[in-house]
Amino acid sequence: MDFYDFKNAFLIGFFMAFMIGPVFFMLLQTSILKGARAAIAFDLGVILGDISFILIAYYGSRTLLEKIKDDPRLFFIGGLVLIIYGLITYFDKQNKKEALESAKIVDVPIKNNYVKLFLKGYFLNFINVGVLAGWLGIVMVVGPTLDMNPTNIFWYFATVILGYMVTDLGKILLAKQLKNKMTPPVIYRLKRIMGIILLICGVFLMLKGFIPNEKIDEFIH
Question: What is the 3-state secondary structure (H, E, C) of 91-113?
Fold first, then answer.
């Protein structure tokens, strides 16, 4: 995996860590109320949920990907998934209060129980089908570009998870400042920005199926 793939994977992890939802607010809430260690335990559960989704998306679609890895329609399908996910994110009008109410389905215990927090992080993330859709779109596009090489795919998604973890650690350390700044208007704007980014990525991936790689490389570099 070259530096461009590494940078791309790390940025994907960075942006996914800022997807606004119950997990985002629960992480901030846990950090503020129970401290950094409790938040890290919760976040490790969330990350395990993401790894589970990556494995489901990869092994669930591997046979299909092997058959059509050179088919431009693959990029069209992957791009379409990201566009749909971007539209859902863009038009989601859930505000901070509603998101925090959603997060309350997982109560933070009075005493820190790291195993319990870990499991709660896992299940809170795992029940979000939208996250699976996002990972599926990424797997469907990334797999063929890496020639379905298991080693390259492993390191690519390991880098994505690394970017996700580093960003979450930053959020945990800055939780109090972030909470004060996460007003409903800010959340609304962030969601729209993330939705637009996903839409742009989706459109780019759809075009990639019909534009020669040489021209894309010339445009990027």
Answer: HCCCCHHHHHHHHCCCCCCCCCC
The confidence score (pLDDT) of residue 198 equals 74
Name residues whose C-beta falls within 8 Å of residue 13's C-beta, 6 or more positions apart in sequence.
159, 160, 161, 162, 163, 164, 165, 166, 167
Band of the pLDDT at 72, cuts 50, 70, 90? low
Q: How far is CA 88 from CA 46, 52, 82, in A?
A: 21, 23, 10
Please state, in angstroms and rounded to a whole number, the distance separating the CA atoms of residues 10 and 19. 15
pTM of the model: 0.67
pLDDT digits (tens, 9 = 90+) for 122-143: 988 877 766 777 788 788 778 7
pLDDT at 32: 81
25 close to 172: Cβ distance less than 8 angstroms: no
DSSP 8-state secondary structure symbol assigned to residue 135: H
Tracing tokens 């779109």 back to the chain, one arrives at: 137
Instruction: Tell me how far apart the alpha carbons of residues 193 and 152 are, in angstroms, rounded to a whole number.
Output: 30
How is residue 61 written in tokens?
């679609």
CA 67 from chain centre, in angstroms, equals: 26
CA distance 18 to 16: 5
Angle between helices 3-16 and 150-173 (to 10 degrees): 40
